[in-house]
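ugh finaly. both done.
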Amino acid sequence: ESSAASDVYKRQLWKRYESDQHVENLTLEKLQPSHIRNFLIRPNWSAKTQRTVKSTLSPLLTEFKPHLVQSVKLKKPTSTLHKPFDNIYEILEDIKAYNKQLYLCCLMTYGCLLRPHREIRELTWSDFSDDLKYIHLSGNRNKSGKNRIVPVPIYIRELLIKGEPHHNIFTDTTRPLNEDYFKTLWSRFKKQSNLIEQGQTLYSFRHSGAIEIFKRTGSLTKLQKAMGHSSINVSLTYLRGLEVAELKEEDMPMVFN
């Protein structure tokens, strides 16, 4: 259902584009690379979003016009390191006072290490175990493509009141919040908060949670599994700049047996 809702959203975007560009009811025969380029390259879409939407369009059009989408060249997205929080409790309390749904989203991004804009936004009660202690996400629901089982900390479980199995946890209906909901809320919160620093985003909660797990466990393998990363190398990027002593005295070269 969430995938269907996403498809409906993309069709609405295309219809809006047709209307704005005065090219309503554009047929495949008349479709040109310029139409695809103008649709993809828009000020409010990041380079990453443009590439994601392009990859969605590509298989849809390949059968009819194989080179149409491929001929549109996009900028390579720059790697973004989301700055972690030093004052996580203070930030969360400020968000709690601002908006309860944004608070739950941020808390789950930090405590469950799920990605906010899809994995958390699309959560239904059927994704939780009966006792709410675990979240089960199938491979098509997360970025790595692998099934994930994520523990739910007690401080999050205390906020949850289980609803109908196929109902979204935020809307209490079968439809999730719109794709930009948390992004918009975060932007509004950031403007009125004096706690958020440059480079801190919704994903900073996930970054902060990753650092906390590594500090507690010292295990890259556990960190990789918790984050749902495809490789340890991806997990390592979350630890850049973290001052953690990787060598212990017993690891150093010995002179005598």
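ok and the 2nd:
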Amino acid sequence: MTWPALTLWLLILGVTLLRRDLLVYLFTATMVFGSLTMLPPGGLNLTAQTVCSLLLVATTLIQRRNLEKALAMALDLRRLGFLFLFLLYAVFTAMFLSRLFAWMVWVVPLNNSAAGLQPMHPTSSNFTQAVYITLSVGIAFVFALKGQNAEFRARYLRAILLAGALLVVSGIVDLVLTEAGRASLLAPFHNAHYALLTDVKEAGHLRVVGVMPEASAFGSACVSVLSLLVFCFDDFEARLRRFILPATILGLVAMIYLSTSSTGFVGFIVIATLYVARVGARTLVHGRLR
């Protein structure tokens, strides 16, 4: 276990025990550490955000009546019923279909250690992917439950802004250290058992990856946060809209460009197109640019 993982363990557990309401900040902030596993070498790839997701779901559902409310949402098709049905189907297919059709279907494995077609068979990934999708749906239930509180919504917006700032900082640090020939300093943050592509160049220029496994993951993360910051701009506090929020948005745009990620470029074009359409629609309705 590397020192960043140990530090995050202490921080996450401390916040959970002492200031549970701040856990949402760690949930968004830890998305930055996409290539850091929280377990010793040889274990599963347990990311910091996965740990935060588990604790956020658990601490929310144990609160009074929240579990009852979540079950009511899951059984109501007008609320989160279809999402719950999707979860049941996803877990069933992950856990059983790979066994039902084992050695009967040929697939292309995502693990870079196995090249070419391989017969499908049950692996530990079936379990981990079932856990990941369950946590993802669990987070949706958490926000459905807690999102009715105005204070929580404001806290979540600040948490997203924090994640955006950390993505920008991690990208700058990656760029500076790599150009200075000191990229080894980031090695403790790249200990996950993924196909790590952290030193790839595109047309002679280094692809910025931050502390993600590769540039596409970094660009996708920047796009995800950028979309929330742009379309929720008016919902932020006035003091944040003056400088911090615009600076973070510009920083994320710069990181998307430096990542040279096609996913990031396409995502940015979609965001820009939708934003222009939104401004145009508002102008037509209100008679002035807004």
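summary for the 2nd one i guess: The mean pLDDT is 88.
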